[in-house]
Amino acid sequence: MTYLTHKDKIFIAGHKGLVGSAIMRNLESKGYTNIVTKARNELDLLDQHAVKDFYRREKPSVVFIAAAKVGGIYANSHFRAEFIYENLQIQNNLIWGAYEFDVHRLVFLGSSCIYPKEAPQPIRENCLLTSPLEYTNRPYAVAKIAGIELVSSLRAQFKRDFFAAMPTNLYGPHDNFHPKTSHVLPALLRRLVEAKENDEKRITVWGTGRPQREFLYSDDCADALVHMAEKISESDFDKILNTPPYWCSVNVGGGDEVSIRELAEMIAKEVEFSGKLEFDPSQPDGTMRKLMDSSLLVKWGWKPKITLEQGIRDTINWYKKNRNRYQVAAC
Ligand code: GDP
Fold it and tell me: Which of 15, 58, 64, 124 has the smallest set of CB atoms within 10 Å of its CB?
């Protein structure tokens, strides 16, 4: 029996980030108290010896890996080498360490960009590695695919109850709001909040505005991950991961799909910005559509609770309250 229970000692790697902080809130709201976290200056996840020492000392029984080098389309295309190197290193240390030190349940997070650029929509888990990836985030995607394969290989070879979850585009508190390196939702949110405050007449939106993205609030994503860790049995995971169809991960979506133009309009309405949205087609659009098929998660009894309107409203409020004391990460 490897379900997550209140007896477990839980390690959240990346607890200060968008997803890690949401996992923390979710676990605390469900009464979990035995949670271990480490700030970057206490544990360097790139350092294999330090990570092994950590596992040896703390002996967590359940691990959530939300630590990764992440960023938007600009960061992914400009820091290609760091994106593949750091992600490979972080996940190798955390996943192999969890295997060596007998963690019994591990949740590894990737993202929808691991799927091929031309994947049929909505994207099913079995289309992984069926055709080429989008060039802008290929280094990140290749690292994540390697991590997913490591997790499923430990499951197949050593019967470890480790699984990978692929969330769609996430947003919420503790996101990266850097104007250049962030993802589209926090970038537009910040730009529009500031444009309203400075009474600007226009803002720029990268690309054509035509790509579509599915957005899920970080607290919904965390709820789905904790739901799977608590409620879905090892044998149910084995049925999809260790026997045909040999999936490598479970999609976490079910959020709202909108075009980038519609997203910009929604945020503009929320912050009462009535100026012009100018599109800059010299910036890349990236993948045109990446809607996830999350029907397995629905079958497993989970669906999101927070609408895009509500999530945008909550994120704007959080951003306005926290922008001065909260350090915005570069990527
Ligand atoms: P992606 O989902 O991996 O492509 O990453 P992003 O969230 O960075 O970008 C999604 C889409 O939003 C792309 O088509 C971008 O060109 C577009 N976009 C529009 N304005 C912005 C912006 O200010 N920042 C970012 N990151 N993307 C933007």
Answer: 58
Per the structure block, which two tokens stand in for 222?
């965390």
The alpha carbon of 285 and the centre of ligand 1 are apart by a number of angstroms equal to 7
For the stretch 275-319, pLDDT in tens is: 999 999 999 999 999 999 999 999 999 999 999 999 999 999 999
The whole-number pLDDT of residue 331 equals 36
* Alpha carbon of 59 to ligand 1 centroid (Å): 39
Q: Are 36 and 9 in contact (CB under 8 A)?
A: yes
For the cut 70, the answer to whether the pLDDT of residue 328 exceeds it is no
72 ligand 1 Cβ < 6 A: yes
For residues 93, 134, 15, 182, the Cα torsion angle rounded to the nearest 10 degrees is 130
**Number of alpha carbons in the 13 Å side-chain half-sphere of residue 129:** 10
Whole-number Å distance, alpha carbon 284 to ligand 1 midpoint, is 8
> What share of the chain in percent tops pLDDT 70?
98
Which atom of ligand 1 is closest in space to residue 72's alpha carbon?
8
Catalytic residue among 32, 99, 140, 171: 140
Q: Which is nearest to 292 in space by CA: 168, 118, 144, 158?
A: 168
For the CA of 283, the nearest atom of ligand 1? 16
Q: Which domains does the chain have, with CATH numbers?
A: 10-175+214-256+290-306 (3.40.50.720)
- 235 by Cβ neighbours in 10 Å (0-12 / 13-18 / 19+) ranks as exposed
Which residue's CA is the closest to the ligand 1 atom numbered 24?
A: 184
pTM: 0.96
What burial letters (b/e) apply to 50-62, b meaning 16+ CB within 10 Å? ebeebbeeeebbb
Active site (annotated) includes residue 217: no
